[in-house]
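We read letters as residues; the fold follows as tokens. A sample entry reads:
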Amino acid sequence: MREMGALEGKTIVLGVTGGIAAYKACDLTSRLRKAGAQVFVIMTHNACNFIHPQSFETLSANPVVTDTFARPERWEVGHVALAKKADLFVVAPCTANMMAKMACGLADDMLSTTLLATSAPVLLAPAMNTGMWNHPATKANVQLLQDRGVLFVGPEGGSLACGDSGTGRMSEPADILRRAEEILDVRKDLLGLRVLLTAGPTREMIDPVRFITNRSSGKMGYAVAKAALDRGAQVDLISGPVSIAPPQGAVLHSVVTTGDLLKEVTGRCGECDILVQAAAPADYTPLEAAAQKIKKEKGADLTLVLKETPDTAAAAGKLKKPCQVFVGFAAETENLTANARKKLVSKNLDMICLNDVTRKDAGFDVDTNCLTLITDSGAVELPLMTKRQAADRLLDEALRIWKEKNASKAQ
């Protein structure tokens, strides 16, 4: 018996705007249908200059809507009917023009009208010239839409149809499909649980303008935060300095130094059910930070005397209650498993997530990861996957351990 996926039986309204990437929407339609979704396509008039509507009608097995005033086969207000049917509204490709319409609340064609009427989650896959994507007006529109809860996938970097190279290429259909599945994965198995997360790097000041830090982008921790929120948890996110926005719904606690991180974690870990420590704190800090900027003296070397920073994970481990689950990360470059298992014991963790940061497709500042989940009872090697997918697998295991620890409460 085939396992039902997140899109099985769901209704996806797919908006297609005018751009060369419209041909990829045909592949996306096919993938959505194969995943079990019913697909209704709305095309702008410009999109029809790139792909004939009959292509989408064949792939979706549904009529394609292009005209706001076309007479329906049965009486219903077209844009309202599709807006209500949608479990998810995807626009791929989404032009800068369509995002500008959405930001301003314009409704001058069937697609923009239906988008304005829907209450379903909206996922945009932008596609445009690099200059258009980087224009301040587009950036402002993206930020405004994100603030309203609109979701994005891409755009990606690379060669564009216009001959330029840069960010602006529409994400691949497989990536858009995965994002749609994540959005419609309605598991609420963390409902009622409190998850405390740490993410990003810390900074240790050398002088007022220089600091010691590391390459952590915060992407893994933020992915876990988003996954936990989607699954119903109450999430507190303790984050070092990063350049990404926190997931909507998380309570953000910003920190800078490892000392700040220690204070926040030890002050809050007693109230959580699951603690996931994905932050990468600096291991050393200057013995004494200079009060003024250290001036460069030609020909003279600079010697820094460093001391260890406090071990946040070990300090939290000493405070762990029997009913709690504490998860750590081990970013390693050699003796991977041995080093990870040593940390598992020394920091009193229930699970440690090992990743080889020498890999170019895993670890720091990329969107994929390859984790090994290590517990006292064994290890599970995960294949290369998106950080969001890895986050869900991590939470699956953490929840399993939590249920085992708290089984007596339920009896």
Confidence is low (pLDDT under 50) at residues 73-79. The first strand starts at residue 11 and ends at 16. DSSP finds 14 helices and 21 strands in the chain.
